[in-house]
Design goal:
The chain contains 22 helices and no strands. It has 490 residues and is mainly alpha-helical.
């Protein structure tokens, strides 16, 4: 199969997987938000950083090394598999011992039981890390999609059933474990690959040489991304952390949906054309503008309509999360650009620069946190916005040199989209204020439709490239769930 056909197929199945999972998870989150208390979500949020670090240590960045290795063989895959499995057991043992200390830090005794049970997913997921890497390397997202959707559906049924039966926070724990078990089982059966249980030290040193820097970068990223969770969980009530996590997860819904679809496919694709800088820049440029064209107005729309949206979807008990959500929407706009710029460094084999950038950004984030902490939770969140802007210029410094696509040029390309999104936000706010006496669902429908129409009309008037491409897709009846502006360049 040609690279073009592989990309098209991969994008289609990645889209199905992402949209399917997001739909199921969003529906489940609505049900669970009505059955459980914000404080119970806050308890799970408190161990989020440990789950993230454990996942990064198990992955170790070796998966990325396997993808970029042209001639990876059974020895490469088996070596990484053995390392992941042994590493997961060691990490779980550490978490089992550390659980009481985690509970004591947050002054929540129940976290001991939660941590020891939830982190079993480290060992379970270690069996699938290489399986998923092989599928990604070959752009086989069909197999992963089937496993992912089934496991998400099963975990949803488990979580809702237990929450309805009064299991409280433990329903969230068992939901996560159920999903991990089903996903691992299905991938193990369907992928057809089996490890040889051999460990080649030379191959390990090769992959770890590249992957270790990616691993440390990932750990730094998780540590500082969860710094807000640690601070809010430590110095505020669990309910406040629940509000923050609810706001952040809803913000991530459009961000992770659209950027996640492309991230899975673009990394191996970027790796295929990594030596053709002109082609790589063209592909990157179109992807970036396309994603911002979609994410920017969606986040603006959700942010302006946050109050009726939260009240209608999650009920009034979640309204304190509204101001958190609105600030996080502003911070989320540039997220895809951060990820794509770092992907360029990765496929170029410059994990040293990747790590250096992460260290610089984390030092900067520590400064922002120290300054914004005294201004309360909202101050911390506005600090996220400031950091996101500063991180944009840091991330684009080196990748811009590789592609001859500097920060100012990237900013110039997306600036008109951001301006139009802001104008749409003012338009929606005006309409929403006029319709404030109407039921929430009516306001959401009218304002949502009006905002989208406003954005698309003016995008057409000003002849935005991304808008014209979407219009071409619709005319040709190509499924819009397959955002592939770069396919013709492959």
């Amino acid at each position: 199969m040609s690279l073009k056909k592989q990309a098209l197929s991969g994008m289609m199945w990645s889209s199905i997987q992402t949209f399917g999972n997001q739909f199921i998870n969003f529906a489940v989150s609505i049900i669970l938000a009505r059955l459980l208390l914000p404080a119970e979500f806050g308890l799970i949020g408190m161990i989020g950083i440990f789950m993230g670090i454990g996942g990064a240590l198990i992955g170790s960045g070796l998966g990325a090394s396997l993808i970029r290795t042209t001639d990876a063989d059974q020895g490469d895959y088996s070596t990484v598999f053995v390392f992941n499995l042994v590493g997961s057991i060691i990490i779980y043992a550490f978490m089992f011992i550390a659980a009481p200390y985690i509970a004591d830090f947050f002054k929540q005794p129940v976290l001991t039981k939660i941590t020891r049970l939830y982190t079993l997913s480290f060992i379970i997921s270690a069996f699938t890390a290489v399986q998923v890497t092989r599928l990604h390397k070959h752009l086989d997202f069909k197999t992963e999609t089937k496993s992912s959707l089934v496991s998400t559906l099963v975990s949803a049924v488990v979580g809702v059933s237990l929450a309805y039966s009064g299991f409280g926070v433990m329903s969230l724990v068992w939901m996560g474990l159920a999903g991990a078990v089903v996903n691992t089982t299905m991938l193990w059966v369907q992928s057809g690959w089996r490890p040889s249980l051999t460990f080649d030290q030379q191959k390990f040193r090769y992959h770890f040489g590249f992957g270790s820097r990616m691993m440390f970068s990932g750990i730094l990223d998780i540590l500082f991304n969860n710094a807000y969770t640690i601070i809010i969980g430590k110095f505020y009530a669990p309910a406040q952390l629940g509000y923050y996590n609810r706001a952040d997860s809803l913000k991530q819904l459009p961000v992770s949906t659209f950027s996640g679809i492309l991230n899975k496919v673009t990394y191996p694709l970027f790796a295929e054309i990594k030596n053709d800088d002109v082609r790589l820049k063209s592909v990157y440029q179109r992807i970036m503008k396309m994603v911002i064209f979609v994410i920017s107005p969606v986040l603006m729309l959700m942010g302006v309509l946050a109050e009726p949206l939260f009240r209608f979807v999650f009920t009034e008990k979640w309204l304190p999360a509204v101001p958190y959500f609105q600030i996080l929407c502003v911070a989320g706009v540039l997220y895809p650009i951060h990820a794509y710029n770092l992907n360029i460094l990765s496929v170029k084999g410059r994990s040293d620069l990747f790590l250096r950038l992460e260290i610089i950004k984390k030092v900067l984030l520590a400064v922002v946190l120290a300054i914004s902490f005294s201004f309360g939770i909202k101050g911390l969140l506005w600090g996220q916005v400031i950091f996101s802007v500063l991180a944009f210029f840091i991330n684009t410094h080196f990748s811009g040199k590789f592609l001859n696509y500097p920060s100012w040029e990237q900013l110039r390309d997306i600036f008109p989209i951001l301006v139009l999104s802001s104008a749409m936000g003012i338009f929606i706010f005006t309409i929403s204020s006029i319709l404030s006496s109407l039921p929430d669902w009516i306001r959401l429908i009218i304002c949502g439709f009006s905002g989208i129409l406003f954005f698309l009309i003016f995008a057409q008037i000003f002849r935005f490239e991304s808008g014209q491409f979407i219009a071409e897709l619709l005319k040709k009846k190509i499924p819009v769930s397959i955002p592939i502006p770069f396919i013709k360049y492959l």
